[in-house]
Amino acid sequence: MAKPPILVETGLTLLILVSWCCPCFCCPTYQKEALLQFKYLLVGNNSSQVGLNGLETWNSTSDCCQWEKVTCSSSTTSPQQISGPGFANFSEIVTLRMNANSFSGSIPLEFYSLRHLEYLYLHDNMIEGELASNLGNLSNIKELELTYNAIHGEIPREIGNLVYLQKLLLGSNNFSGLVPPEIGNLRNISTLSLDGNSLSGEIPSSFEMLENLEGLGLSENFLFGEIPTWLFNSKSIKFLLLGGNNFTWE
């Protein structure tokens, strides 16, 4: 008999496919516990936090199929174990949208274990801390948006491992240090936004290898050096934002 999954939506869309063990639309205990662990991972004991967007209905006394943002479906998926509290019973996470939810604190390390994740949207929150080097484990990620948070520290060089990235949006944070030259490894990237941080140094020469780059935002940082001519000769770039730096012309 086909085993339907649960599709869970947090913020706008959190797509989680998990196995099912009964024919009725009732929530298995182990899946309810996994979802409650996931909620705790996000908000801790502060269940009254503003901006939960439905997570306040997630509790141990009700059927998780009746929770807001949870839909019980009859679709199937291949099972896959994902490590970490709250994720152990989820078969697969492909899209995770939790933007504009007033989340604070650092990005949980468990997020970096979601190796099948393709779309991660955490923008417009109050996330702090640094990006872990484990970011390089998200080997299938295509879109990563972390804009309008308070993330600080250097952008990890392991970001160059995310070779399927098409959109990387890290603007309006507190990133510092040099722009990682490893970003030049992201040959599929079309949109790169690093605006509104405290990045320094020069534009890496490796950026010239980004042949699919259409939009590049580097404005409002502390970058310096000569603006390379290839930026203006590029056949792909349509949007280029460099203001608010200390550039000179070649």
Key phrases:
8-stranded mixed beta sheet, membrane, leucine-rich repeat, single chain, 2 domains, glycoprotein, 2 helices, Leu-rich_rpt, Leucine-rich repeat, LRR (right-handed beta-alpha superhelix), Leucine-rich repeat-containing N-terminal plant-type domain-containing protein, 250 residues, mainly beta
Record the SSE blueprint.
Blueprint: E1 6-8, E2 14-17, H1 29-43, E3 70-72, E4 92-97, E5 104-105, E6 119-121, E7 126-127, E8 143-145, E9 152-154, E10 167-169, E11 174-178, E12 191-193, E13 198-201, E14 215-217, E15 222-227, H2 230-233, E16 239-241, E17 246-249
Parallel strand pairs: 4-6, 5-7, 6-8, 8-10, 9-11, 10-12, 11-13, 12-14, 13-15, 14-16, 15-17
Antiparallel strand pairs: 1-3, 2-4
Mean pLDDT over the full residue set: 79
Number of helices: 2
How many beta-strand segments? 17
Strand proportion, as a percent range, falls in 15-25%
Keywords: Glycoprotein, Leucine-rich repeat, Membrane, Repeat, Signal
InterPro entries: Leu-rich_rpt, LRR_dom_sf, LRR_N_plant-typ
Subcellular location: Membrane
Pfam families: LRR_1, LRRNT_2
Explain what the structure shows.
The structure is a single chain. The chain has helices at residues 29-43, 230-233, and strands spanning 6-8, 14-17, 70-72, 92-97, 104-105, 119-121, 126-127, 143-145, 152-154, 167-169, 174-178, 191-193, 198-201, 215-217, 222-227, 239-241, 246-249. By secondary structure, the protein is mainly β. The protein has two domains: 1-92, no CATH class; 103-250, Alpha-Beta Horseshoe (Leucine-rich repeat, LRR (right-handed beta-alpha superhelix)), CATH 3.80.10.10. Strands 2-4-6-8-10-12-14-16 form an eight-stranded mixed β-sheet, with no helix packed on it. The longest helix has 15 residues, at 29-43. The chain is elongated, with a radius of gyration of 20 Å. The protein starts with 5 loop residues before the first strand and ends with a strand. Residues 1-24 and 73-91 have low confidence and may be disordered. Residues 1-26 form the signal peptide. Pfam families: LRR_1, LRRNT_2.
